[in-house]
Write a structure and sequence with these properties.
The structure is a homodimer.
Chain A (H helix, E strand, L loop, with lengths): L1 E2 L8 H8 L3 H9 L6 H14 L5 H8 L4 E6 L7 H14 L3 E6 L4 H12 L4 E5 L5 H10 L2 E4 L8 E5 H14 L4 E5 L6 H16 L3 E5 L6 H14 L3 E4 L2 H13 L9 E6 L11 E4 L2 H18 L1 E2 L3 E5 L1 E3 L11
Parallel strand pairs in A: 2-3, 2-4, 4-5, 5-6, 6-13, 7-8, 7-9, 9-10, 10-11
Antiparallel strand pairs in A: 11-14
Helix pairs in contact in A: 1-2, 1-3, 2-3, 5-12, 8-9, 10-11
Chain B binds a DNA duplex through helix 2 and helix 4.
Chain lengths: 334, 334
DNA sequence: CTGTTAGCGCATTCAC
DNA sequence: GTGAATGCGCTAACAG
């Protein structure tokens, strides 16, 4: 049973007194050491350290308007797609000496906007990953605070997009070469930009390679949805499937196995995002994305806006490619 | 190309002027409406809404010392163990109208402490999950700010522990019943509390059931480490293995398969944490944990400290149990 | 180079 | 019930 009454951290004034200088000097020792004599800086910081003084971020923020925080909002932390992005954002932000608030919108637009409002007074900018907000709401928020989008394409708002197109096309080519004639696309969330893009890419390429493609709809990007897609795919007579993401691909793998279909023996599966590929057996062929890079780029875009105070209509495309592992082989003869 | 010069949000003064009241009244309308006449509150809030006024979190924090933020630090966001914990923390914090900072320590004690210092001036409390800090450093930090531990047992610091013991014992019993005589434990990080606890539980139970157990060391809890453990396990002549976590179990699965050992045909595998079990094929038997609950409990513990200003030596144990799926069967006869 | 003076936006004593 | 004053801890002109 410990008393917590004395939680007051040492302030700038205490350091100033102990060092026999003014508070401004202490402040400068931490923010503009170049304005002080080396000796003064040394002495002040030494005393600060001894006392255990740490600049108070809140006070600094109130005074400068800069909090040194950014907010990252994702639809679902638990979706394996996001952790690498979260981590990269975190690491990159730290390089710029920024902290990151994390928000989980639960795929819910209202909730997402509530989070944004809640964060807005304590961050200098936002990164919205796979935002579920409407274009209008995104524009509205972007007018209030610097805002960068990941995997969401709104004109005028800085955005970094992972172009699955290239990787998807590769995947279709790969399947065509292996002799597959009928393939399926296991869709992701209908309001997802990535899904629209992937679906379009697969249809386009399938057409040019004269492949038949079945579109299997799904509500959510979950293992369950992938599992549930198996029957429709088999009924259609497809011999290969591309899933919206690795999670669904895993689900499909399980759904197929449950119906006695061997992968890659009888059927080929390709995932997307390449977040699970290396940790499953058999290792999943997948269209790699650039999640970490997206996080890094998004942060630097944001930092750039913060620095220049100007937001440009940038649209950065990160390319993808197919990673061939063991879930894709030649179509079973017969 | 948009100019961002006018980012200044409306302040309490503007509302006061527009409403023809003092700033104190506006402040009260938001924090202590009971002190004002209903009519005044109505009028002030109406005007505030019209102007688009939102109380400035930073200024409020500086004035009151309460920021309404908590920090959550985990060793590795990408480890599937943590996302459910992160999400639960987030959700629970939100219920109390708190925002959460997320920190990723990269399993590095120095980095972890750096994060803590960096956050310390803008949060009211910390939740450290699977902290890599020394007991001494944890105590030091806990003396400065309210601090709750998850899966780390330091006397005097409020902590919530997932007792894998019960589930591990179940797993050993289960394997013993299936006829296994020699089993292996694929260790996790040596400085992990959970690992120590799991290893101890398995040794204890194995002894009482007269099973031989091989301890396979590992540096990190990764797929690779699990994969690399396979040869040693096979050489030892074990017919089953329990892994420190699901990720390593997956790795072991792959490592075994690569050497032509079928699971569950020739060998049984049990994971821990049950985060991957339902999304793999074959579905992994695993010792379930209570990550989400841990997150919830940790937050409420923290809120309790914040409210009462008193920290008690609480030690909450969350139990676990074995979830039997398809990677465990009778020992191959012969 | 360093000290002095003024706020940043808000909550909170006191008075009235 | 409401207003006037004060300070949270710090940075940013402005002097010297």
């Amino acid at each position: 049973m410990v008393d917590l009454t004395n939680l007051g951290a040492p302030t700038i004034s205490q350091v100033a007194k102990a060092a026999g200088v003014s508070r401004a000097t202490v402040s400068r020792a931490f923010t503009r050491p170049d304005m002080l004599s080396a000796e003064t800086v040394r002495r002040v910081t030494a005393i600060a350290k001894k006392i255990g003084y740490v600049p108070n971020h809140t006070a600094r923020a109130l005074s400068t308007g800069r909090h040194g925080n950014v907010a990252l909002v994702v639809p679902d932390v638990a979706n394996p797609f996001f952790p690498p992005l979260i981590r990269a954002t975190q690491v990159e932000a730290e390089k710029h000496d920024f902290c990151v608030f994390l928000g989980n919108s639960d795929e819910n637009p209202e909730h997402e906007e509530k989070l944004v409002s809640r964060f807005s007074t304590q961050v200098e900018g936002f990164i919205l990953a796979s935002s579920r907000l409407s274009d209008a709401r995104i524009r509205f928020q972007a007018a209030r605070r610097p805002l960068v989008l990941v995997n969401r394409d709104v004109k005028g708002i800085p955005r970094v997009l992972m172009d699955s197109g290239a990787g998807i096309a590769e995947a279709v080519d790969h399947l065509a070469r292996l002799g597959h004639k009928r393939i399926a696309y296991i869709s992701g969330p209908s309001n997802s930009w990535s899904n629209a893009q992937r679906r379009a890419a697969i249809q386009r390429r399938a057409k040019s390679r004269a492949l038949q493609v079945l579109l299997v709809p799904a509500q959510m990007a979950s293992f369950q949805s992938g599992y549930a897609a198996a029957p429709a795919i088999l009924d259609y007579g497809a011999t290969a499937a591309v899933a919206f993401d690795d999670l669904m691909a895993q689900g499909a793998l399980a759904g197929l196995a449950a119906r006695g279909v061997a992968v890659p023996g009888d059927f080929s599966v390709v995932g997307c995002d390449d977040v699970l590929g290396a940790i499953t057996y058999p290792p999943l062929s997948s269209v790699s994305n650039a999640c970490s890079e997206a996080g890094r780029v998004a942060v630097s875009l944001l930092m750039d806006i913060l620095k220049t105070r100007v937001v440009r209509d940038v649209r950065i495309i990160l390319s993808t490619s197919l990673v061939i592992r063991n879930t894709t082989t030649k179509v079973a003869s017969g």
